Structure formats: C-alpha cells, structure tokens
Amino acid sequence: MRFDEAYSGKVFIMSGSDFEKAKAVIYGMPMDWTVSFRPGSRFGPGRIREASIGLEEYSPYMDKHLEEIDFFDAGDIPLPFGNAERSLHMIRDYIDQLLQLEKFPIGLGGEHLVTWPIIQSMYKKYPDMAFIHIDAHADLREEYEGESLSHSTPVRKICDLIGPENVYSFGIRSGMREEFQFANESGMHMSRFQVAEPLRKILPTLSGRNVYVTIDIDVLDPAYAPGTGTAEAGGITSNELLEAIQLIAESDINVIGADLVEVAPVYDHSEKTAIAASKFIREILLGWVK
C-alpha cells in the first residue's frame, strides 16, 4: 500500500493531505465476506466519510476542534471480493506498516472479523496490551457452521492470542450459552447490557496500560442504528456510547488504536447510523489520539 498520496475519493471531514505529518490514519476495510445474516457492511466506510461532511468540526464533548489533530484519511484497503483469508492477511500487513511508521490506526469496517488481523499486528508491537470490546454480540464462537473465519469468532481468537484476562467486553446482550459460559470461566471480563457504568469502574484497573478499542455499531439499540447487519433489540443509546468514548478519553489508559465496524447503510434510509458513526469517529480522533 502507498501512503504518499491523498485518497482520491471522499475523505473524512478535515482530513489532512500530508501523510508524513499525520499522527493518526483513518483507513477502510470494506469486507463483509463472512456475515451470517445481512450483508452490506462493505459499504460502511464510504458512507461514514460522506456523513462526516455534516459534522461540526468542533466537539463540545471534548472541547476540541479537528484542526488541532493531524490525521490523514488513506482510503480503503483494496480487499479481494469474497476472499476472507487473503483479506485478513492484507489488513494485517497494512497495520504492520502503519505501526512501523508510528501512526495511530483508526479503522472503518466492514464486518467485525476485520478486527482479528489488526490485533495480530498490534500484539507483535504491544505484547502487554489489553482489548476493550463494545458490542451487542459476544463474538466468542470458535466457528460458525464449520467456518472458523466468521464475524462471530474474532473475540474468541483474540482471547486465545492475548489471554482472556486481557479482554474486556461491554454491552453484550446476544450469544450462545457456550459463549457466556466461556466468558464466566475463562477469566475475561464481560459486562452485559450496559457500557458506560461498568466501563467507569473498569478503566482505573487498566491505568497506564496499552489498550486497543473496537466498537461494533450494533451495540446501539436499532432505534439509534438500524443500519447494521445483525441488529439486536435492547441496546444502548447514542448518548451512552458518546459517554463511553469520553470516559476512555479522560482515563489514564494509553489507547493504541481503534476501529468502528458493522455499519451497513442499505438498511437505514434515514442515514442516522452513518451519521452517528461519523460523530463517534470525530470524538475518537479528538479524545484518543494524543
């Protein structure tokens, strides 16, 4: 992948044109090859960028302006349609390059399996890392209908790689009985249904640690985010997710990267899912990129 030229398509609002100067890099992972219900999240990165044009550049939550952050929108990784294994290799290689260049990666999905190769790369650089997972689904299956490469398996793979005691899931309200049993018995942390309040209690225990954060947009109730492949009733509000992002920003953890996944625009003609996602990305840029 080349980073020496600005992305020729639509970019996130106020993206800079100088990759070398940028501290953070936004990149897209347009992959939905393993989804089990409704496809379409491969169109999420582009729609999030387009929706960002409606944002104010100033955040009253963080009391910061996007002009204060040097970031570069590198566009989408050109993933091969339908080839999950090769796509994951390409994502891992891409993150390897960003980390070698000391960039803060902010990924736009795509299905949630795309987080797995990111953590493989992150773990090589940060073997002491912890992982915060904000989602409706446990994603702790070992396989789905015989396929180990599935959007329902990334967190289980990450547990096996970095140790379940370093994995912290929030907002979970869906999964197989065996997934909840694994969470209870393995030593990982799982908070069901809520995000902000349990996160407030956990963050002090992660003080000083390197932490990667993944957000699945379906942690929101479908009333706030209908544009996703596997919507689950009973979720949190947009306001609670904004609060969670701010709590992380105000904490003493060292955020080393982040992604936001599973926006599927075709299921939301109101576009409120992409609009919300773009606002969350703005807050991540302003709050987590030091």
From TrEMBL:
Transmembrane segments: none annotated. The keyword Transcription regulation does not apply. InterPro entries: Agmatinase-rel (IPR005925), Ureohydrolase (IPR006035), Ureohydrolase_dom_sf (IPR023696), Ureohydrolase_Mn_BS (IPR020855). Keywords: Hydrolase, Metal-binding. Pfam families: Arginase. PANTHER family: ARGINASE/AGMATINASE (PTHR11358), GUANIDINO ACID HYDROLASE, MITOCHONDRIAL (PTHR11358:SF26). Belongs to the arginase family. Agmatinase subfamily. NCBIfam families: agmatinase. This is Agmatinase. It comes from Oceanobacillus caeni. The lineage of its organism: Bacteria, Bacillati, Bacillota, Bacilli, Bacillales.
